[in-house]
Amino acid sequence: MNQIKQSQLMARSCFAAGIVMTLVMVGCKPAGPAPQMGAPDVLVMDVVQKDVPIYGEWIGTLDGMVNAKINAQVSGYLKSQNYTEGDLVRKGDLLFQIDPRPFQATLDKSQGELNQAQANLDLTAINVKRYTPLAKDNAISQQELDDAIQSNKGAQAALETCQAAVQQAELNLEFTKITSPIDGIAGIAEAQVGDLVGPNSSELTAVSTVDPIKVYFPISEQEYLWAMSKRLAEGDDALKAAHTTNNLELVLANGQRYPHPGRIVLADRQVNIRTGTILLAGLFPNSQHVLRPGQYARVRLVVQTLKDALLVPQRAVIETQGAYNLAVVDEQNKVSIRAVQVGDNSGSFTVIREGVRAGERVVVEGIQKARQGAVVNPQPYKMEADPAPAAGTNIPAP
């Protein structure tokens, strides 16, 4: 039995040794050559050459063309509010009604006094007519005739006073109906039904004409002088055209461009000595009443046009410590890192002043793979939209 066990142990040991030798021989087999990696994929785009408008951009505040503050002109209790806040109202529409009863009573009283004064005038006129021939015949004294004449004049004056009182009472009664003086958007009511209002109380509401709507924006004195010198150099026709050409753009707070262009309508009479700016006003159509007074927006205006400018996507520009570079791919798909001089931005593109030529391919995505001298596999980069003009710098100083 012991012999059998020993034979089994020796067989197992030989089998294990065989496995170990096989593994060692496999591990010592010389390795083959490493697989070659392909050229990395990058997205490229040709340098675009086109005319690029450069915009000046300023912060503007929207305001109504006309802003009418609605106040009570007579004192009384507010009886009703007759408009919907925030809605369009027309000139003459009733906004508020003050209790008219006290004013109607005053008018009725004034009308009665007028009738009484008219009757008194008629009586004195009859006396003058009667006394005149009697005084000529010495049937009455001249003093009695003079008294009758003076009484008639006094009655005439009293009648005119009563007529004025009636007119004032009618006017006060009319003032109890508070109407809109203009077409526009009516604001929130500042007084409630039942409030005692009057000439000395705060405004009841406001109505603003918003079609068209104004936008006020300040520009620096240097920008104003630059623009004026340019207009003067172009002649009188250019000065007139500045107020008739729809060349203003409006960018709203959500970043969207207002679809309707506007025009400059005025410049303030003086420069603000504290800020060194002059206030300009533009006018924009607003038939849908999208724009409202008090909104902030960016006002843009084309100040110059770069002829045959070279454009590349902004994301293609590599900035390192104030230096700008582009990864350019040549015809052999080899990358060269090239220093460039950048200009203004135009939408999602950047103007390149020097360093590339029109038609050259630049790397837009995968720049981290594009090393100097590396060979890449260029693929076309697809833009979501064509290059569009956008804001650049403000008007350059002279």
Could you please describe the fold and organization of this structure?
With 398 residues, this protein is of the alpha+beta class. The protein folds into four domains: 88 residues, conserved putative lor/sdh protein from methanococcus maripaludis s2 fold, CATH 2.40.420; 101 residues, Beta Barrel (Elongation Factor Tu (Ef-tu), domain 3), CATH 2.40.30; 55 residues, OB fold (Dihydrolipoamide Acetyltransferase, E2P), CATH 2.40.50.100; 75 residues, Helix hairpin bin (Helix Hairpins, Orthogonal Bundle), CATH 1.10.287.470. The chain has five helices and 19 strands. The strands form two sheets. The protein has a 15-stranded mixed β-sheet that branches. Strands 6-5-3-8 form a four-stranded antiparallel β-sheet. β16 and β17 form a beta hairpin. α2 packs antiparallel against α3 and α4 packs across α5. The termini are far apart. The N terminus and C terminus are likely disordered.
